[in-house]
Amino acid sequence: LGALFGDEDRAEKLWGYYQEILERAADATEGLTDAQRPRVLLLQYTEKGGEVAFKVPPASWIQTQMVTLAGGIPVWTEAAQGGGWATVNLEQIAAWDADQIYIINYFGSAVEVVKQLQTDTQWSVLRAVRDGYLIPFASDLHSWDQPDTRWGLGLLWLGQQIQPERFAGIDLEDEVYGFFGDFYGLDRATIDSEIMALLNASQLQP
After folding, report:
1. 3-class SS at 100?
2. Cα 13 to the chain's mean position, in Å?
3. 12-70: per-residue pLDDT in tens?
């Protein structure tokens, strides 16, 4: 794309941003043992025709890779060897007994879904819910777990959730301002009104 649009220097700069994100995550998680890595479950919430479903991503997809890169152990990989999101029931979710559960909602508010689940009698018995680790995945106009430009922000945010001590030196607000300024040319006032306004405060903090 850089060659196509005659701006290879900018293409290299943007590519370098993602390389740096990966290097920062690798440095932060270096030396972690399996015992130091929380068991993590990432679920996509869907609701079609009034029917609620929860799905896990394939083992090879970016969502699963992000959990590993952020210092966690994805608990669902053996059940997700296919080519798309796989539906799982509450019995399976309970059997995995994850330390942390993250909720993705591509068509609504993950924050609202988490609030509903926290008051659900079936979900409230799950250990992650009892311990306060049922967490909405960060999002603005789009969820930060997807393979679009925001995945770098998503990885840093997820690292702060899964390994807060090791990612403690990262200021997510500064990362957001830098990303939308460099990639999209947005000024701080626009980022505040169009992006920060959509980010729930709890989504930016571990």
Report:
1. strand
2. 24
3. 999 999 999 999 999 999 999 999 999 999 999 999 878 999 999 999 999 999 999 99
| DSSP at 198 | G
Q: Environment class of residue 197 by beta-carbon count within 10 Å: exposed (0-12), middle (13-18) or buried (19+)?
A: exposed
Residue 25 in contact with residue 154, Cβ under 8 Å?
no
pLDDT at 167 over 90: yes
Helix residue spans in 83-150 (DSSP H): 90-96, 110-118, 127-130
Half-sphere exposure of 48 (CA within 13 A, CB side): 5
Q: Which of 160, 140, 154 is nearest to 38 (CA)?
A: 160
- What is the rounded CA–CA span in Å between residue 176 and residue 201? 13
- 13's tokens: 């700069």
User: How far is 155 from 185, CA to CA, in rounded Å?
Assistant: 22
Compute the distance between CA of residue 96 and CA of residue 75 in angstroms, rounded to an integer: 7
pLDDT at 82: 78
Cβ(101)–Cβ(128) below 8 Å: yes
160 close to 66: Cβ distance less than 8 angstroms: no
DSSP 6: T
Smallest CA-to-CA distance from 99 within 65, 60, 138, 71 is with 71
The first and second tokens of residue 54, run together, are: 């929860």
Q: Which two tokens stand for residue 110?
A: 């993950």
Burial environment of residue 200 by CB neighbours within 10 A (0 to 12, 13 to 18, 19 or more):
middle
- Per DSSP bridges, beta strands 73-74 and 100-104 are unpaired
